[in-house]
Amino acid sequence: MRSTSSKNRTGRAARAAAAVLAGALALSLTACGGDGDDDGNEQGGSGNEETAGAVTLPKLNGESLEVAAVWTGAEQANFKQVLAEFEKRTGAKVTFVPAQDPIINFLGSKVAGGQPPDIAMLPQPGAIKQAVDKKWAKPLGADAIKELQENYSQGWQDIGKVDNKQYGVYYKAANKSLIWYNTQVFENAGATEPKTWDELLTTAQTVYDSGVTPFSVGGAEGWTLTDWFENIYLSQAGPKKYDQLAKHEIKWTDPSVKDALTALAQVWGKKDYVAGGATGALQTDFPASVTQTFTGGDQPKAGMVYEGDFAQVNIVQAKAKVGTDAKVFPFPAVGDTAPVVSGGDAAVILQDSKAAQALATWLASPDAATIQAKLGGYLSPNKNVDNSAYPNEVQQKIAKALIDSGDDFRFDMSDQAPQAFGGTPGKGEWKALQDFLKNPTDIAGTQRKLEADAAAAYGN
């Protein structure tokens, strides 16, 4: 998933709030296993509407819609099941349009050709703002806003707003502060789940000494590298600095960035700590970084892989069982508290119509989110999705921690940046951190490059 990554400015929580959520994750993610619709409460319709649960949808026989997203593989297939249920309930026909990163550029070509999709799933608040600034995005109607207000915390509503007007429905969320591990590797090595950065380095050495490379890194996709940096930076520098750097109110040449890169180099720069070395990692995409951690029996290419809850889709593709073969622990505390970084994907209307507004309303409903929750590898910020819908105990606890956090989370930093800096392959932060993975000794040079690219993108 280019996950699922996401960008406006929201829910700035205090350090204490982040500590509470991190603590909840630490308590909840150690256990692993288990398995996890009634629509009910039908409302009266007017005869030309179909009602299910709390969401009422119009009849749309003969209407056709296009939805664009960068999702691939199982994630795309699962989302298509959500769209299929919308078709069943309304009579509309919905076509999924595969998009490429950066999606704003993809949409630009579609708009220029006079054929924009009806709805786009935008993985950054910054991309939502760009779509609004370019006058592509259309505000949500009353029905979609009502559904949002009933089902979402204020923080998740706010990150879909531009100039206090609601444009986005955050259909998909991500907890991006997790490290997944191969349980057989840990058992063979006698390794334990770490709670601090120093303990993580000790665990990595224990895994290395057992004959398995500690970490798998999907460096071919720059967003995975920004996520590594953000977790370290949030924990080490704290929420206030995190917010300042996210807005470019402090420079990337700040000493706090040096400290985070120095910590990151303790993993990326340690000989034989990354599967395939820097060269191999830079040729490994995100899905492969996960699957190679959970294939090969007790001798996989790596013992651990960092990424969000959505990695479960790829774990299942590796024919590993979440909770048995694959377990997870919260990203360890580098500073005073463990980090809690979130991301997400928002549905944004590009062609305003009754059908597009109905689809946005559907995606804001617990009915829609519940379908994908049951399929696994998905996390919803919709607080009215029953926790039992998630297919295993691990994901149930991750979802509960997200919902219980309310507005107390930090959104993915690169997703808050202008897309030219935080969301474009081969450019900006993605490219600078790929270069840093290749040469983790060049901390000062990396900072200078990050600052130059940020200044150009932010215009300051």
From TrEMBL:
Q: Where are the transmembrane segments?
A: none
Keywords of the record, alphabetical order, are:
Signal, Transport
Q: Which InterPro entries match?
A: Bact_solute-bd_prot1 (IPR050490), SBP (IPR006059)
Task: Please report a single Pfam family linked to this protein.
Answer: SBP_bac_1
Tree of life domain: Bacteria
Coiled-coil region list: none
Question: What residue spans carry the region label Disordered?
Answer: 35-55
Q: Which SUPFAM superfamilies match?
A: Periplasmic binding protein-like II
Q: Which Gene3D superfamilies match?
A: Periplasmic binding protein-like II (3.40.190.10)
Signal peptide start and end residues:
1-33
Q: Which PANTHER family match?
A: ARABINOSE-BINDING PROTEIN-RELATED, OSMOPROTECTIVE COMPOUNDS-BINDING PROTEIN GGTB
Protein family membership: Belongs to the bacterial solute-binding protein 1 family.
- Record-given protein name: ABC transporter substrate-binding protein
Q: Which organism is it from?
A: Streptomyces shaanxiensis
